[in-house]
């Protein structure tokens, strides 16, 4: 296939693309790849001894490939954060000139496809940035950088916390929606003399690490879908920026374009898309690592699809998904679980190097259920010669990064470490999903009255209450060696409705009530800021089920949609044994009025 790209520079609408909107021409040397062949292609490219991703990426033209005379003018140099990543003349955004200033039409941004890619605003260019947003009738801004990374300013804060006036443009923040990996801010924007107020959203992805690329694409793919679903079809171009406006910005737009192409044509053409983007803005997609990440992200999106289901359709959709196909003796839900297993990352020995250190062996209940180094909560409180390791993993909730800490039931020799974890990571809730069983080295790790001392940490019993299948106990904990730090109130929720011999809880309603009680305590006591420690015997299936259902309930509350697949995939990205068996995965799928129970509790 070959597409005419000549009209793209003038194409300013973020909408579903027509074939002529695709900003590249399929090359003969690098033809488009069928979605059905993408997994095989990526596997071959990663295994290739000679020609693979490295050679393919190095074949891109590096550096300037078109004139950029306007950007190089002395009057415009201060408008460029990086001297080697500036706007080409043929595709640059031209601002409406300010009377008396001949060079006021320049901003470091280029039209690419149906969006504008720019470098991050600097203090000197904030007004120009909002001029561009207004002049282009932009309704959505995508930001793929944090304000500060590794102690370096990556972007100035070009938006207000309340109201700010940038010369003749007034910007008012009217809503902020905080999620685990991104923030959505809504602004009311006015221009003097325009007699209208525009609503503009900023989608700020915060989950990109300081170095490299995200470990997984799940969060970014959800972010891309949010941008698509909440961007008005008839507005002006999407404005996308990171710091330089080349690397992360390029990743976002290539993924966006290729997902549209995969859906529309059943093929993707990543190589030629990147090549064409580089003809519009210098060095788009800056590293080989980013180039490989784009492939992995598109593969994950194609394999998994969009698994979100509107609340109004949940019961009917999952009813159909549970139907058994007599020819295959399978169901859609079983196939979805197989897909989940296929896209779950496999932990290598080097991923769990800290858990596998000889000095930490005795702290692990099961050597096949280990936390990867990248999500370990390292203990801070000093306790003699004890190491800073605990078999636990930080997990995101729907709205809060690292909201859960999933761990095993403390071993007799790790009870001290367990309470160090609770204190060091500002945990205000403990969820217990197994029984005390000395035969399985599951001791009672809390006091029934009085005070237990665990090294410098003191745990004082305050109260206990039994309601149906839930025992709730409140403790006061503090570090005796640092009395100036004060104390923290922690509530433990012991769930009795999941006997060890059962695969799933006795009552779904009771389990949902447990989730509601934990949420209520978190919100009332600490404004939702404290973390929740969740443990079962080994920190796997049951703990994962609790976290996944908590995430789904948050989705239902805030999005009026359910996405069980996404919830479990998010957890498994950090710990692959989360919700590891099919009966855990289907335990709370909306059958037997389960969704109605969720809605009732919410």
Describe the protein's architecture and organization:
30% of the residues lie in helices and 21% in strands. It is an alpha+beta fold and 602 residues long. The protein folds into 2 domains: 8-304, Protein-Tyrosine Phosphatase, Chain A; 340-601, Protein-Tyrosine Phosphatase, Chain A (Alpha-Beta Complex), CATH 3.90.190.10. A hairpin with a 7-residue loop joins strand 22 (470-479) and strand 23. The model is unreliable at 1-23 (pLDDT under 50).
Task: Spell out the blueprint of helices and strands.
Layout: E1 33-34, H1 38-47, H2 53-58, H3 69-72, E2 92-94, E3 106-112, E4 115-118, H4 126-135, E5 140-143, E6 148-149, E7 152-153, E8 163-166, E9 169-178, E10 182-191, E11 197-205, H5 218-230, E12 238-241, H6 247-265, E13 267-268, H7 270-280, H8 288-304, E14 309-310, H9 314-321, E15 324-325, E16 330-331, H10 332-343, E17 392-395, E18 404-408, H11 415-424, E19 427-432, E20 451-454, E21 457-467, E22 470-479, E23 487-495, H12 508-526, E24 531-536, H13 541-559, E25 561-562, H14 564-572, H15 582-585, H16 594-601
Parallel strand pairs: 4-12, 5-11, 5-12, 18-24, 19-23, 19-24
Antiparallel strand pairs: 1-13, 2-3, 3-4, 6-7, 8-9, 9-10, 10-11, 14-25, 15-16, 17-18, 20-21, 21-22, 22-23
Helix count equals: 16
Largest sheet: 9 strands, mixed
* Structure classification: alpha+beta
Kindly, what is the distance between the CA atoms of the first and last residues, rounded to a whole number of angstroms?
Answer: 50 Å
Radius of gyration from CA coordinates = 26 Å
Helix content: 25-40%
| Strand arrangement, major sheet | 2-3-4-12-5-11-10-9-8
CATH fold assignment of the largest domain: Protein-Tyrosine Phosphatase, Chain A
CATH fourth-tier homologous superfamily of the largest domain: Protein tyrosine phosphatase superfamily
Low-confidence stretches: 1-23
* Proportion of residues in extended strands: 15-25%
- Specify the CATH architecture of the largest domain: Alpha-Beta Complex
Output mean pLDDT: 89
Count of spatially separate domains: 2
Quickly name the level 1 CATH class of the largest domain: Alpha Beta
**Strand count:** 25
State the shape: globular
């Amino acid at each position: 296939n070959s597409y005419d790209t000549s009209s793209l520079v003038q194409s300013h609408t973020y909408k579903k693309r027509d074939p002529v909107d695709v900003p590249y021409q399929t090359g003969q040397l690098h033809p488009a790849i069928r979605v059905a062949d993408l997994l095989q292609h990526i596997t071959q490219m990663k295994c290739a001894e000679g020609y693979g991703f490295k050679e393919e990426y190095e074949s891109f033209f590096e550096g300037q490939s078109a004139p950029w005379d306007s950007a190089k003018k002395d009057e415009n140099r201060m408008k460029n954060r990086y001297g080697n990543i500036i706007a080409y003349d043929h595709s640059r955004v031209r601002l409406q000139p300010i009377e008396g200033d001949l060079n006021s039409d320049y901003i470091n941004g280029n039209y690419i496809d149906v969006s504008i890619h720019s470098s991050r605003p600097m203090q000197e260019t904030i007004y120009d940035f909002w001029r561009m947003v207004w002049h282009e009738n932009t309704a959505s801004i995508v930001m793929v950088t944090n304000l500060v990374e590794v102690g370096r300013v990556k972007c100035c804060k070009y938006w207000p916390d309340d109201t700010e006036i940038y010369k003749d443009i007034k910007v008012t923040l009217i809503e902020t929606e905080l999620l685990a990996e991104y923030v959505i801010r809504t602004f009311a924007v006015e221009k003097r003399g325009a007699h209208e107020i525009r609503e503009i959203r900023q989608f700020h992805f915060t989950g990109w690490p300081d170095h490299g690329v995200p470990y997984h694409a799940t969060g970014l793919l959800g972010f891309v879908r949010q941008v698509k679903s909440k961007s008005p079809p008839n507005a002006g171009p999407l404005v996308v920026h990171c710091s330089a406006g080349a690397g992360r910005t390029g990743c976002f737009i290539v993924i966006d374009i290729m997902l549209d192409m995969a859906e529309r044509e059943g093929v993707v053409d990543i190589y030629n898309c990147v090549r064409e983007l580089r003809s519009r803005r210098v060095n788009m997609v800056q590293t080989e690592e980013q180039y490989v990440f784009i492939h992995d992200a598109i593969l994950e999106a194609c394999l998994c699809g969009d698994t979100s289901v509107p609340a109004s359709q949940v019961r009917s959709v999952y009813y159909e998904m549970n139907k058994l196909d007599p020819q295959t003796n399978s169901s859609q839900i079983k196939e979805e679980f197989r897909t989940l297993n296929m896209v779950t990352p496999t932990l290598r020995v080097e991923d769990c190097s800290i858990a596998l250190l000889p000095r930490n062996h005795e702290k692990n209940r099961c050597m096949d259920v280990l936390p990867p180094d990248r999500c370990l909560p390292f203990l801070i409180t000093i306790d003699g010669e004890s190491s800073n390791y605990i078999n636990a993993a930080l997990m995101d909730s729907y709205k809060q990064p690292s909201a859960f800490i999933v761990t095993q039931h403390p071993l007799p020799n790790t009870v001290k470490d367990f309470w160090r974890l609770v204190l060091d990571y500002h945990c205000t809730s403990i969820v217990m999903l197994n029984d005390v069983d000395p035969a399985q080295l599951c001791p009672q790790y809390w006091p029934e009255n009085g005070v237990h001392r665990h090294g410098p940490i003191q745990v004082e019993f305050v109260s206990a209450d039994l309601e149906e299948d839930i025992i709730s106990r409140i403790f006061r904990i503090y570090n005796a060696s640092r009395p100036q730090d004060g104390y923290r109130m922690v509530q433990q929720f012991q769930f009795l409705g999941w006997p060890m011999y059962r695969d799933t809880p006795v009552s779904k309603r009771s389990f949902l009530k447990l989730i509601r009680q934990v949420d209520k305590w978190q919100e009332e006591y600490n404004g939702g800021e404290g973390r929740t420690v969740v443990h079962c015997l080994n920190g796997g299936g049951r703990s994962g089920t609790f976290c996944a259902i908590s995430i789904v309930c948050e989705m239902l509350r805030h999005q009026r949609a359910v996405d069980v697949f996404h919830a479990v995939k998010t957890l498994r990205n950090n710990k692959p044994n989360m919700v590891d068996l099919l009966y855990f995965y289907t335990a709370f799928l909306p059958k037997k009025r389960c969704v109605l129970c969720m809605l009732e509790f919410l």
